[in-house]
UniProtKB/TrEMBL annotation:
ATP binds at K9, F57, R85, T91, R102, N112. The gene is ndk. This is Nucleoside diphosphate kinase. Homotetramer. Pfam families: NDK. GO terms for molecular function: nucleoside diphosphate kinase activity. CDD domains: NDPk_I.
Length: 137
């Protein structure tokens, strides 16, 4: 499909990058379909990241993602998943290409500023986690 899901993570919000990141996203041609400023409880962060529950960093990830407010959004663009992952850069900001969001705003692999869905199926699941039908425009 032509949609993806993103979260501006607690580190980027706390460091004052929410506006700059939204501007980068919109300037790159993504249309905002849904947008929410919210905070995950530990329980809901655990549910969101359930696919990673066997990974060694799962506990740290869940506690980090529930440590402060985030911005969640559904975005639309042709080839959205791939285009958005190109815009945000590698998971490890030390390896993220120049000019990518993680290159500019992230400090470490665990506090890496932004999330982008990795498949159409997950974009659908993740968007549904945060947004009802009447919150999409
Ligand atoms: P997301 O867009 O956030 O899903 O990142 P990603 O798809 O680039 O990475 P992945 O789905 O593999 O991992 C999910 C998140 O777990 C990453 O964004 C990181 O914040 C975190 N993470 C991944 N690898 C590590 C790691 O080795 N250590 C720690 N502490 N966190 C990690
Ligand atoms: Mg991922």
């Amino acid at each position: 499909t032509n949609r993806t899901f993103t979260m501006i993570k607690p580190d980027a919000v706390a460091n004052g990058h929410m506006g700059a990141i939204l501007n980068d996203i919109i300037s790159a041609g993504f249309k905002v379909i849904a947008l929410k400023y919210t905070k995950l409880s530990e329980e809901s962060a655990g549910k969101f990241y359930e696919v990673h529950k066997e990974r060694p960093f799962y506990k740290d990830l869940v506690s980090f993602m529930s440590s402060g407010p985030i911005v969640a959004a559904i975005l639309e663009k042709d080839n959205a998943i791939e285009e958005f992952r190109k815009l945000i850069g590698s998971t490890n900001p030390a390896e993220a290409a120049e000019g990518t969001i993680r290159n500019k705003y992230a400090k470490s692999i665990d506090a890496n500023a932004i999330h982008g869905s990795d498949s159409d199926e997950n974009a659908e699941i993740e968007g549904n986690f945060f947004f009802s039908a009447d919150e999409r425009f």
